[in-house]
Amino acid sequence: MRKIKVLQVQLHKKNDCVLADEIIRSLPVNFEVTNAFLCGETCASGYRDGGIENICFGFPDAWLRGSRLRVLWRLYRFCKQERFDMVVAHRYKPMSLFLQLNRWLRFGRVIGIQHGIGDFDRSYRKREMRRLLRENCYVVAVSQAVREYLLRANLGIDERNCVRIDNAIDIAAAERMQLTREYARRQLGLPEGSFLFGTIGRLVSVKGHIHLLEAFALIKDEFPQANVAIIGEGACRAELEAASERLGLHDRVFLLGSRVQALRYVKAFDVFVMPSLSEGLPLALLEGMSGHLPVIGSDIPALLPILEGCGGGIFPVGQADGLAECLRDSLEFTEDQLREQGERCYQYLCVTHSIEEYRRKYRQLLTASD
Q1: 53 has a pLDDT exceeding 90
Q2: Cα gap 360→303, rounded to integer Å
Q3: Domain 171-352, CATH class in plain words
Q4: Reduced to 3 states, what is the DSSP secondary structure of residue 283?
Q5: CB-based burial, 12-48: b 16+ in 10 Å, e otherwise
Q6: Integer CA distances (angstroms), 38 to 84, 90, 121, 302, in order
Q7: Which of 91, 133, 145, 209 is most buried per CB count within 10 Å?
Q8: Taking the model in full, what pTM does it have?
Q9: Where are the domains of the chain?
């Protein structure tokens, strides 16, 4: 059986998509995959990891702006030599590069995976997509909200070439990683007896952490046993620290910084909160559900169907008052009610976001004949 060569491309090793490896695992044995990272530490000779060849081109970030001729020339020579049958490119920049290269190299199939909303708000990106898309090109949306955004954006894509494959997690693997509630709290230095609202995510404005602090400040005096914990690091740390002081939360909010394999600590929380202003389909929320936790989230398009499906708490995006009501509701539940809510979230996750279904859909997309 002839080997089918697939190139999977991501922008940067440090920001790689955790689900990229699952796409590889979905493929039959006659598919030979090379993982490529455009930026990061150069490893042009390639190295093997679990039977998969990896290559890091080491392009400076500045080379990915403007005409990108040096990048295109290097990639053209590499692909012409390797003779790839298919390309899977994650996010806008890698996808746009390989749509351009597709004009000259005529891959069998080019699949661009879009992980969020907003990448095509700029008019020149819309024009580029309309100019470069060919019959052999497909765009994958990681959620229904992302797909609706792409179809509305006037990119030249339609129902035929815009495919929805929801993000997923390996639930069994996630559960094996998770520490017990008590041990996770000790590892994080959190009070063992408190009620803990928790979240995992970069400390950037789009994650909406400031609204979580503002909401918690509205109910903190009613529920002195409650605290907030945030795992993550980022540019908004100073703003959040200042807000904690201003709102009288300095001893009630724990900014825990970045943690390796943050999923390990999810059971330290009693309720998982996702106050985001915008998302594609956040894996962190799914990870919270894998810990059998009740969830609360904003009513943005990427979260709303999940929250409605699992019976989670929903509040108007950016509104601290609404979030405060959801927090209060959770604090007034009995232990049995919280446990039942967490189980509903877990069962919904198993039905709608299993890794097996994710692999099946990618296998179907990559092996189907046009």
Answers
A1: no
A2: 23
A3: alpha beta
A4: helix
A5: beeeebebbbbbbebbeeebbbbbbbbbbeeeeeeee
A6: 17, 11, 23, 28
A7: 209
A8: 0.81
A9: 4-168+355-367, 171-352
